[in-house]
Write the structure tokens for this entry.
Amino acid sequence: MIPILLPRYFQQRVLNWFNAHGRKNLPWQQKKLPYHVWLSEIMLQQTQVATVIPYFKRFIKQFPNLSSLAAANLDDVLSLWAGLGYYARGRNLHRCAQMIEQEYAGKFPQNLIQLQSLPGIGRSTAGAILSLGFDHAAAILDGNVKRVLTRFHALTGWPGLSAVNKTLWELAERYTPTRQTAAYTQAMMDLGGLICTRTQPKCDQCPLQTHCLAYNTGNPVNFPSPKPSKKLPIRSIQMLILVNQQQEILLEKRPAAGIWGGLWSLPECPSDEDSKNFSKKHYYCATEKASQLTQMRHTFSHFHLDIHAVVMLVKEWRPPLMESDRIVWYNVQQLQKKGLATPVKKLILFALEFSATQPKIQVRRVYPTIK
């Protein structure tokens, strides 16, 4: 029978390993700022460190502090976020900065409950801000830490289940030290990210190997238990790429809630409707012709989206006099500055290449282009 490793010995092994092998040169570690910790933690949710690094550097360059982020236009924030996915994180980031600026005089609260009341900050992110940003004794439970604790105790059951998650939080609280909390927190994240990986864990390099119950089962990759499989439903839409003679694309701002919330996107037409009639009825565009450009599948966490892209050359645009600013024309240069979901950006650039090869038409401008 494997003896139980007391918390103080667990902590010491992890800290000793971190001192010798942990990551200490990540961009958000260079200055011990709660703002940097918070920004990196939000970006790292469901995203690899290597992917986050260039995004973090660009964000810090444009928004060097919380006040500059709070004062920014949401479009500028989402433009920098484009490509990271899970766009609600970007919207919550902006709203959270504004709330801290307005309600806490621009300073992060040092209270777990107050932090959790802010948009996009859950229990683990709040713990990371307190431990890494202020060196307070607060536990975290991100994906890496869950994997380490699940394997160390050979816990069965998907960690997303309430009972399993509750047990993991109890373990996280038990092992988190009251001193050297920042180092311990980073060490646990590094241990999960570098050693106790999802596949092919480097058990021979793990400081917890001798007491790890999953390792001693002979097959540690069986832990954590996988999420119960569920067949994702499939949705299908047409995306309309309306291009005028000036190579401008008609874009529509999506509602704040839902997929790609707050980003600029292409008009969406139900698969069973005629794209030309739909464009005229809903976007006031009379089109010269419609061409099936391509189709692609984009997978969200809860469904597959099959996109059938249709490029259409616009010969006339006649919007109402009181046109909403949610529908605008953008040129190629502006597209690079606006928040666009990655698949939408790919379709637009593909369409511009396509339309450049087509015969030019004379466009009747009944209403001036909105800039």
Observations:
- DSSP finds 15 helices and eight strands in the chain.
- The two ends are 72 Å apart (CA to CA).
- Residues 128 and 140 are 6 Å apart (CA to CA).
